[in-house]
Amino acid sequence: MSHGKRGAVYGVDDDELQIDNIYEHLSTKNCPELVDKPKIIMIQACRGGIHNAVGGDIEEDTIRFLHKEKDFIALLSCTPVEL
């Protein structure tokens, strides 16, 4: 769990870690031991500057992206611009 912004999470002393770097570190090129193993990435961090309360008018607006490699799934706690 951390604070973040679109495309990054904050670490110690507000250092930014790009989410793409997490995927890169776990790629089959950099971590061949994980070939054909499921990789589940769960990121609990805000991703923008818009504060949104739970409830209200909820629309079905699924955003999907395909990873460059197989056996990856990423679960993010909010949409790209939400707190």
List keywords for this structure.
mainly beta, two-stranded parallel sheet, flat, Rossmann fold, 3-stranded antiparallel sheet, 83 residues, single chain
What does this structure look like?
Helix content is 8%, strand content 22%. 4% of the residues are buried. The protein has one domain: Rossmann fold (3-Layer(aba) Sandwich). With 83 residues, the chain is mainly beta. It has 1 helix and 5 strands; from the N terminus they run E-E-E-H-E-E. The mean pLDDT is 79.
Structure summary:
This protein has 83 residues and is mainly beta. The protein has one helix at residues 19-25; strands at residues 4-5, 8-10, 16-18, 39-43, 72-76. The strands form two sheets. The chain has a three-stranded antiparallel beta sheet.
Largest sheet: 3 strands, antiparallel
Number of strands: 5
Structural class: mainly beta
Number of helices, where a helix is a run of at least 4 consecutive DSSP H or I residues = 1
Provide the CATH architecture: 3-Layer(aba) Sandwich
Mind telling me the CATH class?
A: Alpha Beta
Bulk shape: flat
Provide the residue-averaged pLDDT: 79
Main-sheet strand order equals 1-2-3
pLDDT < 50 runs, ≥5 residues? none
- What portion of the residues fall into strands of 2 or more residues? 15-25%
Under CATH, the topology can be stated as Rossmann fold
The N- to C-terminal Cα distance equals 13 Å
Strand and helix order = EEEHEE
The number of domains is 1
